[in-house]
């Protein structure tokens, strides 16, 4: 399966990230005006950190195998926030010790391990929302388990349409996830006479309307972390049940292909977020991770059997 990445994609994602980086204002009290404070959520690290930096790029670095005790995860299988089928600890996935010993080390900056107590103290009386696909959901689960170390009274929280989340009473902090895999609103429309032969129906995507799952709740959050990416493929939306893009209630003509639609939706959602979400809200755009299915795709009995990070040449970013 060779990588077939549309050429504009990495650039767009990078651009979106930079956009939010530049426009975000810092919440954390420790930051000084002269130094940008940034919280990064990278593809596979489960740490979120605050590092003062002017020129540091957290994304440049290496995975280092660290067998010392400090590399061990902060939580174990008793964490109640896991998704059952994804709970590698409780399901006894082989080589978890080895897998958990990989540490992301940026080339030119310090990335200390998260201190859940300090993090929640800094976030006291504030709420963090993640919006997007399962990449954000998996990050959330790990994040909740880490934060729970500092507040054993943490409770599941699923209000306001959140798919999952937790409330940390000791700090009055909510961290939750709203599922919106394309970010924009989309809905199934069964077959109609006007549709092409061979189509069972279409998914109508309104490129200028955010999905309800998050559009009405952004006021509640002080920090929002967005992502989308892995659903923009013909594996999810084959030609029998394609995405059809609408703007201002009308089909976009000529019809956009999947990747052009992705680009339009990204631009439109970024502009919505910039326009509608208050400036005081700290916003992040989370980057993409490579695909990692072996022996078949996600829906074809593929699984992830690796115990070490993918090498550069092994990375597959899209269908
Ligand atoms: C908890 O935080 C919210 C803001 O997220 C605030 O409105 C509320 O007053 C706080 N509650 C307490 C008990 O401090
Ligand atoms: C997946 O595995 C099951 C059980 O071994 C088999 O019945 C099914 O045909 C496989 N599906 C694919 C797409 O390979």
UniProtKB/TrEMBL annotation:
Residues 111-316 form the Trichome birefringence-like C-terminal domain. Keywords: Membrane, Signal, Signal-anchor, Transmembrane, Transmembrane helix. The keyword Nucleotidyltransferase does not apply. It holds the Pfam family PC-Esterase. InterPro entries: TBL, TBL_C, TBL_N. Its main location: membrane. Residues 1-24 form the signal peptide. It is a single-pass membrane protein. It is found in: Membrane. Residues 55-110 form the Trichome birefringence-like N-terminal domain. One of its GO terms (molecular function) is O-acetyltransferase activity. It comes from the Eukaryota. One of its GO terms (cellular component) is membrane. Belongs to the PC-esterase family. TBL subfamily. This is Trichome birefringence-like N-terminal domain-containing protein. The lineage of its organism: Eukaryota, Viridiplantae, Streptophyta, Embryophyta, Tracheophyta.
């Amino acid at each position: 399966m060779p990588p077939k990445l549309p050429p504009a994609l990495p650039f767009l994602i990078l651009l979106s990230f930079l956009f939010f980086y530049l426009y975000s204002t810092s919440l954390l009290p420790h930051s000084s005006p002269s130094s940008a404070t940034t919280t990064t959520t990278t593809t596979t690290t489960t740490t979120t950190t605050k590092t003062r930096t002017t020129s540091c790029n957290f994304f440049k670095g290496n995975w280092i195998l660290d067998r010392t005790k400090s590399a061990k995860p902060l939580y174990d299988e008793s964490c109640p926030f896991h998704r059952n089928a994804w709970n590698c600890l409780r399901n006894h996935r082989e080589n978890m010790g080895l897998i958990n010993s990989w540490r992301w080390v940026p080339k030119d900056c310090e990335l200390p391990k998260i201190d859940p107590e300090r993090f929640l103290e800094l976030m006291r009386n504030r709420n963090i929302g993640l919006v997007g696909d399962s990449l954000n959901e998996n990050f959330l689960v790990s994040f909740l388990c880490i934060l729970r170390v500092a507040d054993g009274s943490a409770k599941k929280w699923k209000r306001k349409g959140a798919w999952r989340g937790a409330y940390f009473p000791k700090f009055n902090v909510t961290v939750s996830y709203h599922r919106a895999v394309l970010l924009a609103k989309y809905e199934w429309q069964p077959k109609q006479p006007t549709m092409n032969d061979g189509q069972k129906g279409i998914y109508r995507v309104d490129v200028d309307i955010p999905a309800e799952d998050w559009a009405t709740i952004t006021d509640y959050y002080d920090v929002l972390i967005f992502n989308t990416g892995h659903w923009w493929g013909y594996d999810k939306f084959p030609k029998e049940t394609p995405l059809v893009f609408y703007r201002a209630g009308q089909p976009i003509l000529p019809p956009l292909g999947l990747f052009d639609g992705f680009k339009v939706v990204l631009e439109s959602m970024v502009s919505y977020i910039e326009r509608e979400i208050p400036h005081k809200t700290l916003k992040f755009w989370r980057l993409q991770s490579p695909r990692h299915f072996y022996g078949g795709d996600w829906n074809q009995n593929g699984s992830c059997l690796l115990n070490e990070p993918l090498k550069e040449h092994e990375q597959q970013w899209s269908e």
